[in-house]
Structures are given as structure tokens and as C-alpha cells.
Amino acid sequence: MAIPLTYNIKNVVVRWNSSFITALTIGLAVFILAISFAVREGLEEARKNVGSSANILVLQEGTRRFPSSFLSKETFYLISSLSGIKSQNQLVLAAPEIVSLMNTPRSLGATNQAFVRLRGVHPQIAQFQKNITITKGRIFRTGLNEIMIGQNLADKFPQLEVGKEIELGQQNWKVVGHFTALGPGYDIEIWVDVEQALSNFKMNSYNAIVVTLEKPENFDKVKKELEENKAFKVSVYQEKAYYESRIDGTIQVFQFLAILIFSLMSIAGFFSTINTMYGMVSSRTQEIATLRAIGFSKIAIYFCIIIESCFITFCGGIIGILLLIPLNNFSITKWQTLSEISYNITITPKVVFFAIGVSLVLGVIGGFLPAWTAARLKVAEVLRK
To answer: Which of 55, 130, 191, 343 is most buried, by CB atoms within 10 Å?
Structure first.
């Protein structure tokens, strides 16, 4: 014969102080674990849209990051004249890029964002290589101080509305459009004509060259040709694989830290659950003995305590999910670095079920010893007292 669930809930509510503290401890642990999986979901989603397998990135030899890569104009001209590069509308799809951090313009008002990321691109070629979608306004024109703003950045700062001007590098630039594009973090960038950026910001080299291959399956052949040519001194990466590897590294680091913190907090939650359940058992020994005397079995008593433990940790799981919900679709970008990755915290049903499942497992583990103790109480001895 099973003990009614209303009895379990009543016992938890009566001892709400200790139950709440335990639930809150479990909730914080579940929140840490759930947010790591929500970030992973966001990264996995971002991983699907990080570039094209037909594009290759050419960086300076031995480097894997844009800021430490410096390529001359001569190198660009030599590479763009090679065979096997795709053409579109009489344009050879090989274009230089620069990426730089600029001080956040004062016109954007008070903000904790110290820098904005600026990318210099070729306006016509970028439309084919990066699948640009103009959400408002138009694309910038070459030779003019015109810029486009990534949609995420435009949403963050109303001062970046189309038609307004901002100061970058001691010069005024006119915002002519907002955009989204196929790539990692483009939606939080400011885009400008690459040659105009070189001239106005007094730069003398590019950071990268993006080349679209006519036949993507020839990547290995092109990579070998470019890297073995000592005149170039470059390292070549497939664009999609390059950004995927950076996302995979971010996933591994984040999950390691999240699991480490979760482990420490779950230990605290585990002992808090044990302490709470032992307190419940010790304050109800006569009550438990009476239940045994009127016919409830040891198994019923055992599951009664386990259910109460799971109910408390389940509430903790709900607390963890409620703490996480406000962060759903929150955009994460390393605003003060040249990180090429931008992604959202994404709460999926898988994240919710996993978080609740973990909280219930903690309830079973934490309630095991108190339940075992309650089930083994000597009825006659307790009732005589």
C-alpha cells in the first residue's frame, strides 16, 4: 500500500524553511548546468551559419587570428590572379579584409562597451561571399565615408540609425544601412569599404584575403599551391572549418568550467538535501513508526522519503529554469576582443528536460540514506518512547 502524495507535499510545506534552502541550492546548481547547455545549443546553432565551404581564408604564415595577420597589397594581387577562383558578374571573387577594434564613439552615449569591431570589405564581392541581406537602407559605396551596421549592433544602439553620422578614427562616417550576413559575429560589426579604411585609418596592410573557389573540392590543391609558394608566406584555411574549430574550442572551454562549477555546487546541494531529509526523518520517527504499525511496508516508507526528496529538488530544478528564462536569446559577444564569434543563449525543450532530470537524480541520491534509515526504524522501540 502506497502513502498518498498529499502526505508528502504536506510534510515538505510544513518544513518549508529547510526545504526552500535546499531547493534554492539545487536551483543554483541546475542553473549553472542548464546555462552551459543553453550556450552550447546557441553555439551549435551559430555553427550552422559560420561561412561557406567554397570560401577560403588566407592569413599570414603561421597565424590563425586576424589581428596578428598582415598581408601586403602585392600578395593580394598575386593571389587574386591565380586560376580556379570563381567569377560572378565579371568580378573575381577574391577580396582583402581588415578587422580592427575602434573606440566606441562618444555619440553612442554611456555604455560599458569600450570598443566596436570594424571590418573593411569589398562591397560588391562581399555580397556574393557573405550572403548579405540589407535589412534597412543600402550598402555603402566605395571611396566614401559610408558604413553599414550589423543588425544586432544597430538594435543595441539607437544612435546608429540609418542617416546618422558617427565619429570613427577622428572622421565622421555616415550610416547608410543595416544588414545581416552569413558568418560569425558579423551582426555586431561595422562594415566599411576596405580601401577607404586603409586610407583613413592609416593602415598599410590587410589582415586576410577571402577567396571563393570555383570548385570547393579543389581546396587541398589550392592550399598546397599557396602554402608551398615562398613568395606568398601564407596559411590557408577553409572558411567554414576555420570558424567551426573556433566554436568547438569555445564549447569545450565553457563546458569544462560549467561542469566544474556545477560539480562543486551539486556537492553542496547533495549535503543540503541529506541534511534536510535526515531532519525530516528525525522529527517524525514516531509518525513513521505509526505508519508502519498501521500496515505501511518498509518499501512504502522508503519511497515516501525519496518522493519528498525528489519533490524538493524538482522545485530546485524549476527555480534553476526560471532563473535561466530571462537569458533566452540573449546575445553573447566578447565586445572587448577581436573574437570572431557571436551567439545566443538558446533554451530548448532538451535543455529544460535535462535540467529537471538532473534535479530529480540529485533528489534520489540525496534522499537515499535518509530513506534507508527511515525504512529500518524499529517500530516497537520507537512507539515505546
So the answer is: 191
The answer as to whether 231 is a domain residue is: no
3-state helix, strand, coil in the chain (%, to 5): 55, 20, 25
Tell me: the pLDDT tens digits for 292-303?
A: 777 778 788 888
pLDDT per residue over 253-312, tens digit each? Answer: 777 877 887 788 778 777 888 888 888 777 777 777 777 777 778 788 888 888 888 888
How far from chain centre, in Å, is Cα 111?
Answer: 22
* pTM of the shown model: 0.71
Phi and psi, residue 16, nearest 5°? -70, -30
How many domains, the chain? 2
- Judge if 313 and 254 occupy the same domain: yes
Residues 176 and 309 in one domain: no
- Distance between CA atoms of 238 and 219, rounded to whole angstroms? 7
212 Cβ partners below 8 Å, 6+ apart? Answer: 52, 54, 55, 56, 85, 86, 93, 94, 128, 129
Given 169, 195, 212, the domain boundary residue is 212
pLDDT tens digit sequence for 77-105 = 999 888 889 988 888 999 999 988 877 76
